């Protein structure tokens, strides 16, 4: 059995972490705006990042 890990969905990045929240933070920091693109993979972290960003945008 291998430990569960979350790998960055960006094709140019091999960053991985042990938690979806950490990955979402990495995406927001390292790939700001990139996950909005149409070709961004539909991953848990990607959707979480989008949802969180929208909530923050409502201010
Ligand atoms: Zn990355």
TrEMBL record:
Keyword Magnesium (UniProt): no
Region (Disordered): 28-59
PROSITE patterns, alphabetized: ZINC_FINGER_C2H2_2
Record keywords, A-Z: Plasmid
Domain C2H2-type as annotated: residue spans: 6-36
Top-level taxon of origin: Archaea
Comp. bias (Basic and acidic residues): 28-41, 50-59
Statement: the UniProt record of this protein carries the keyword S-adenosyl-L-methionine: no
Name of the protein in its database record: C2H2-type domain-containing protein
Species in which this protein is naturally found: Natronosalvus rutilus
């Amino acid at each position: 059995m291998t430990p569960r890990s979350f790998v960055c969905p960006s094709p140019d990045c091999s960053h991985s972490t042990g938690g979806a929240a950490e990955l979402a933070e990495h995406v927001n920091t390292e790939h700001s705006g990139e996950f909005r693109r149409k070709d961004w993979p539909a991953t848990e972290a990607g959707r979480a990042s989008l949802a969180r960003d929208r909530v923050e945008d409502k201010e």
